[in-house]
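Checked the freezer inventory, then went back to the computational side. Two predictions to log before the end of the day. The first one is the construct we discussed on Monday; recording sequence and tokens without edits.
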Amino acid sequence: MSKTWFETNFCRYINNETHYDENRKIIKETWYYKSGKIVDSYNYEYDLSGRLKKEISKNDYSEDTKLYFYEGKNKIPRFEKSTYKIKNDPIKFYLRDNKEFDNLSVSKFDSISKTDSIFSITNKYMKNIGERSYTSATDTIYRPRLTKVKIYDDFFRVVKEKIFEPNDYTLNKVFFNNEISYEYDPSGRIIKIARLNDDQYHNFLLKSNGKYDEDIKPGRTASNSTTEYSFNSNGYLHSMTHFYQGKISNQICFEYENNHIKKLFYIDTWGKKDDILKPNIITFKYKFDKYDNWIECIKNVDGKDLYVWKRQIEYYK
């Protein structure tokens, strides 16, 4: 369900009916159009360990049934068996071994510099089959490929990450993609995430001794984006501000009342001039049941009531 378009933040107003078991796991979901017609329905079954074992999704045009099989106490299924039926088409069966898609990785941690280098072990590469034409292929030898470097502070929190990607059609070269840095407040909450790309291309060629030689070339477009977070005295998120190339791209600020969002202010600078920037003001008005769960919420945007959510909640006795 979470992969469907109507589960996005923009489409949450579509009518939804959700059923839970006594362990708060979702066992049934039904999504409706405004007219009341069903968009999609989902049913879930779990094993005694609380792991998803069966999932059925259906609509007027298709039905998909998935069965999940686990090894031992693992929480990630080893096998997935899928039965897929499109209206007026024959049934299709699929069996997936998730282990085939696992990326084996190893890490090398330097305790002095508190640096963790992470390598994926792979035999996959792109094979040349003609002029500027390639296809995915596998080699007979598995080789380590640098994918990420993590740097930790004295509290073993990640303060910097360097991301690497394959940069040629062999297994021997990687490209430095970007650098991500993190800042924390005294409570250990992330208050700043910054992504930085400089104006150079950094390629790393793996040598026979297992080390990388760096090759630097100019011509890359430099960019930086930053997201900053602030929190109120109760620990709730107060604001989230995104900057691109040093300028505000968008910002959202929250006001709370009794642990619920009462009001938020949103600014999006895309395609707008600084002198006409004006935040959208969104106000939420609630009605609660005797258990202090909201049963009605009105979303007011810039002084106009635009959306109404209503919930009918049945409780286990």
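The second is the one RB wanted added to the comparison set:
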Amino acid sequence: MTSHMRQYAIAVDGPVAPGTLLRLSEDALRALEPQAVGTVNYRNYELRRRSEIALKVAEHLLDTGVEQAKHAGPFSTEIFDDGQMVKVKAGAVRFSTHPKVGRDGEIVPRDFSVRVWHAYSGHIMDHRDDEIVDPTVHWVGRGGYFFWTHANNVEAIST
């Protein structure tokens, strides 16, 4: 099974920041190819879409006061694969299907390692007023219940 994050995330070099995303948007528009009216050019569609997404995520970062992150919307500096070992950082909020974990999740008291069950790329929910959904990392925990957290709360463990 191909990792959702590997397949759909947009990899960026360096931290995801509003300035970086504005440059990505401009680069995508500069890469457009000449196109006759009424013809289909899938590459141009993808470039325009990438430009729009970069602008929306940059605006989201500015609105929330985030100067830079490793992951924001579909943009990621690090791609996680299924089966990879990662460290969930202390202070992270993790969510779960476990009945003892409430809807607001729980704070992780200390670092711990898990094997990624699945990593999901972030995206934009077009049908929900362009809501930005950030990437998440999921794992199977105690009792076979699923747990997940924001990808910014996770670091890859080198083996």
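For RB: Residues 78-156 form one domain. The chain has two domains: 4-72, 78-156. Let me know if you want it refolded.
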